[in-house]
């Protein structure tokens, strides 16, 4: 009979031990989870504190205001420059193209591109056009001179 009691107690003891182990594991898991949540919260609090302290430090300095003001001035100047460039772009284009042709003539050689007496062909054509407008040159004279210059190019 004693043997029978031991046999019936054995599964009960195992079940009790299993339940105790499961309870311990569950309790440890819950504690670990709570500790992890607290660590995460503490870490976020420290990160927030550090970043806000750094931001407040920078904002408290007078150069922060000057950086902010200067960046606004730069933005305004760039908008003004953009508007100015739109207004002056035809003149700018003309200057750039003139400069390019003058440089090209100097680089390649004035004679090869049809310069006359040390002046660039474009300059001479412009002067001829002005002379024609002023009435100093007739249409025929203008066409003859223009043809001479263009033939050299």
Can you put this structure into words, describing what you see?
It is built from 5 helices and no strands. It is mainly α and 153 residues long. The protein has 2 domains: 1-60; 88-153, no CATH class. Helix 4 (121-134) packs antiparallel against helix 5. The longest helix is centred in the N-terminal third of the chain and has 59 residues, at 2-60. The chain is rod-shaped, with a radius of gyration of 46 Å.
Sheet with the most strands, sense and barrel status: none
What is the N-to-C order of secondary-structure elements (H for helix, E for strand)? HHHHH
Count of separate DSSP helical elements: 5
Principal-axis shape equals rod-shaped
What's the total count of β strands?
A: 0
| Cα distance spanning the termini | 130 Å
| Helix content, binned percent | over 70%
Average residue-wise pLDDT: 76
Low-pLDDT stretches: 111-117
Quick structural gist:
The protein is mainly α and 153 residues long.
Index terms:
mainly alpha
Architecture blueprint of SSEs:
Blueprint: H1 2-60, H2 62-108, H3 110-113, H4 121-134, H5 139-152
